[in-house]
Specification:
Layout (H helix, E strand, L loop, with lengths): L24 H11 L7 H20 L1 H7 L4 H17 L2 H19 L7 H4 L4 H19 L17 H13 L21 H9 L3 H5 L1
Helix pairs in contact: 1-4, 2-3, 2-4, 4-5, 4-7, 7-8, 7-9
Length: 215
């Protein structure tokens, strides 16, 4: 039984939305990739670790909980895609890597990003600022993982002009000065945002934008 998360006692034993809580496992997977040729991880342990990720990758891409999370529609879908992208990279599953690359281009970007660069589904929530920052962090992390020298998702735009650059431009000024944010304060954690967001370093390096890196 894999982690299903976010139980409602007396009603359900788990729900697909709990899969977002395993987003942190991508850091484990990335660490394994960085260390696997170092000799510090015994080969038998490496095999067991990859076998676990193979099974978990299969579970989140085939189980009803995984499918419902994939199709959730907001940052949950982006977090699902990032997990699939990183776990696929670790275990060499090129089919799933291709799937989430197409998902980013054909679903996540066109359905979640508005033409002005905002994320309308996140703006509707009680923490619009924090969720917008979080979604851009995860979406740029997905671009970072899936981009190649010949195919950069940081530069990709849809036929009607939607691209991650618009999301970056939209949120940049509100990270620089949170007081400019026009959509109301978050009900929680308002004082804790922003932080040193991954979207600034990933996009700053990919797009050679020193303003992003400096901020």
């Amino acid at each position: 039984m894999y982690f299903t998360g976010r139980r409602l006692w007396g009603r359900v034993s788990g729900r697909g939305i709990g899969i977002i809580d395993t987003i942190h496992l991508f850091e484990v997977a990335k660490s394994i990739m960085a260390m696997q040729d170092s000799g510090y991880i015994p080969q038998e342990d490496l095999i067991k670790i990859k076998d676990w990720f193979i099974e978990y990758l299969n579970w989140i891409t085939t189980h009803p909980y995984g499918i419902s999370e994939r199709d959730n529609g907001n940052n949950h879908s982006v977090c699902w895609a990032l997990q699939v992208a990183v776990f696929s990279e670790l275990v060499g599953n090129t089919e799933q890597s291709k799937f989430v690359r197409n998902m980013y281009k054909n679903e996540l970007l066109p359905q979640q990003l508005a033409l002005d660069g905002s994320f309308p589904l996140e703006l509707k929530r009680t923490k619009p600022y924090g969720y917008s920052l979080f979604n851009l962090d995860v979406m740029t992390a997905l671009c970072q993982v899936l981009s190649t020298q010949d195919n950069s998702l940081f530069s990709y735009t849809t036929d009607n002009g939607k691209g991650i650059k618009k999301g970056l431009s939209f949120l940049y000024s509100y990270v620089e000065d949170k007081n400019l944010w026009p959509n109301g304060k978050d009900v929680m954690y308002w004082d804790e945002w922003p932080v040193r967001h991954p979207f600034l370093i990933f996009s700053g390096l990919a797009l050679e934008n020193q303003d992003y890196i400096g901020l």
